[in-house]
Amino acid sequence: MTIISQLKQTLPSLSKAESRIAQAILAAPEAMVNITTADLARQAEVSDPMISRFCRTLGCNSFPDFKVQLAKSLVNNVSFISEAVSPGDNATSYIEKRISANQAALEYIRGKLDPAVIEKAVTVLSGSKLINIFGMGGAAAIAKDAQHKLFRLGIPTIAYEDHLMQRMAAAASDKGTTILVFSFTGRTQSMIEVAKIAKASNATLIAITSPKSPLAKLADITITSGDELEDTTIYVPMTTRIIILTIIDILATGLALKKGTEIEGQLQKIKHSLDSTKVK
């Protein structure tokens, strides 16, 4: 049973104070993912400790733990296509559910991304002489998207999806190379092996993956992929993919801002190179 289902089921038996908390959550569950204890307490007209006690009655260790469970509820149901939909959903339903799940995930990740870590990653990328991007399986398309965004910003950028090519590129890297790795679980053996080769070559490793994974432990910089919202060992990555694509956009934006006016001419030249390809 999800947290949202649990709240709805227990609502009639709650005390007045608990009921106010539950109703505040159910009225705007997406907004609750990033709310503070103090703000929720103010909305529900209860004390801060009351919020913590209420979360424990739901089986959560703390309010932050409750928010993780709530975020999962917003993308959770039973389907091997996606956790966000259920067998028998019609088009109206799965359109609404998929968009709502992605919106909830982005609101959740907003509060999880550390600006200092993002700034550090942007600084490393900006100082690179070469950026190699690695992704396998579903993450391969994400790697290509990252290449599409980053190559135009003045640094040679190459995306590799073939494992043998990744191993060779990692071995050929050096101190001036940054390797950007995408992995939904951070537990794929072949990607971990590639990361070890990259580290042995003195390349800087940035991993967008599960922070608690073996891959994250090898990385110089780890950016969370929000993997706790979706079990990608079972389901087709959807919510997690949207989060990672957004992180790519954030990194590309930061890099463009860091480069400033020095890349404006290059961006203009690249854009104008496509003018003759359009039908008038």
Question: Would you mind describing this structure in some detail?
Answer:
The chain has 280 residues and is of the alpha/beta class. It is built from 14 helices and five strands. Helix 9 packs parallel to helix 13 and helix 10 runs parallel beside helix 11. The longest helix is centred in the last third of the chain and has 21 residues. About 2% of the residues have low confidence.
* Extended strand count: 5
For this structure, the quaternary state is single chain
- Anisotropy-based shape: elongated
In sequence order, what are the helices and strands, one letter per element? HHHHHHHHEHEHEHEHEHH
| Class inferred from helices and paired strands | alpha/beta
Instruction: Work out the radius of gyration.
Output: 22 Å
What about the largest sheet?
Answer: 5 strands, parallel
* Mean pLDDT over all positions: 88
Question: What's the arrangement of strands in the largest beta sheet?
Answer: 2-1-3-4-5
Cα(first) to Cα(last) distance is 56 Å
Number of helices: 14
The percent range for strand residues is: 5-15%
**Which regions contain 5 or more consecutive residues with pLDDT less than 50?**
77-81
Helical residue percent band: 55-70%
Quick tags:
280 residues, alpha/beta, five-stranded parallel beta sheet, 5 strands
Question: What's the quick description here?
Answer:
The chain has 280 residues and is α/β, with parallel strands linked by helices. It has helices spanning 3-10, 16-27, 29-32, 37-44, 48-57, 63-75, 91-110, 115-126, 138-150, 163-171, 189-200, 214-218, 239-259, 264-272; strands at residues 130-135, 157-160, 177-182, 204-209, 221-224.
